[in-house]
Design goal:
Length: about 280
């Protein structure tokens, strides 16, 4: 193929039919992380029902004239209830709209996408699911932290630090997670960070276990705090780091010294051997 034409055509994408709901992941913030399907849906939707986590730059890609419907918390007011949102989606679809339900990250990762899709299914409304880049993978990557690295971990657990009602995360067996010795990636962790850290250490993780908090990942306001489990709660509070933030616990955080590509663009040197030569020789 003529190389100058290589990018000229997109693959055949499914049409966005009236009366359908597309449940789409918007990724962590950077519009460049949208999928082609998400981009098409934004360009064709009659209405976009979005939550607070969807970035401005992403919303700006919506078709001019599309109705933008906010379904999240605003100014401390309670967010619309989940049944309200689901009913709204059903009503919009039945009215013949191309309904884009846009969620931060991936719609099926701690995003209640499953609940909404079930409600659509119950109502007989046709829907398509478009996965997105989840904060626990893409957000960490923007901070130079890989979800896995063979010298650091062989598994990664995605955990919520919040229960459905916003209470302490007592539905998670933190000690069991700690004893597995693998990487732990925690969503919605800031509020209960002290309790979570205490539980993880009670489960056997050393106070010196590396931790990174990545706030507003992949947006212009991205901020990263690197610390250790023993002091993470106090350090986070002192730093004023804000939600939304993703927390990584374990050896993968050490890789950041070598992989912080954004820092490198700003002139910070990368450590070519962030885990130490011994680790490399062991698995060599
Ligand atoms: N469906 C989303 C997660 C929704 S739960 C996803 O797949 O990413 C909300 C939590 O996601 C936040 O509390 C935070 O922990 C995380 N999160 C979402 N976007 C983020 C971002 N840009 N930077 C850091 N954390 C983010």
């Amino acid at each position: 193929m003529d190389p100058s034409r290589r990018n000229a055509t997109l693959p055949d994408l499914p049409a966005f039919e009236p009366g359908w709901v597309w449940l789409v992941g918007a990724g962590p913030g950077d519009p460049g992380l949208l999928t082609l399907l998400a981009h098409r849906a934004l360009g064709e939707a009659d209405c976009v029902v979005h939550d607070a986590l969807v970035g401005e730059g992403v919303l700006a890609l919506a078709r001019p004239g599309a109705e933008m419907i906010y379904a999240g918390k605003r100014g401390g007011k309670p967010s619309p209830s989940q049944p309200d949102i689901s009913n709204r989606l059903v009503a919009l679809a039945r009215a013949g709209g191309k309904v884009l339900r846009l969620k931060g990250g991936d719609p099926f990762v701690f995003g209640r996408g499953g609940e909404e899709a079930l409600a659509l299914a119950r109502a007989g409304v046709p829907f398509r699911v478009v996965p997105g880049i989840t904060a626990g993978i893409g957000g960490l990557a923007y901070a130079g932290i890989p979800a896995t690295h063979r010298d650091a971990n062989h598994a990664v657990a995605f955990v919520t630090g919040h229960m459905a009602g916003g209470d302490a995360p007592d539905g998670v067996d933190w000690r069991a997670l700690a004893s597995g010795g693998q990487a732990i990636v925690i969503y919605m962790a800031l509020k209960h960070l002290a309790a979570i850290a205490t539980e993880l250490m009670a489960g056997g993780l050393a106070a010196s276990t590396p931790v990174a908090i990545v706030s507003r990942a992949s947006t212009p306001r991205q901020r990263v705090l690197e610390t250790v489990l023993g002091t993470v709660a106090g350090d986070a509070a002192a730093s004023g780091i804000e939600a939304p933030a993703i927390v990584a616990v374990g050896g993968i955080v050490r890789l950041r010294a070598g992989l912080d590509w954004m820092g490198a663009m700003e002139g910070r040197p990368l450590d070519p051997d962030p885990l130490g030569r011994d680790a490399a020789r062991r698995t060599g």
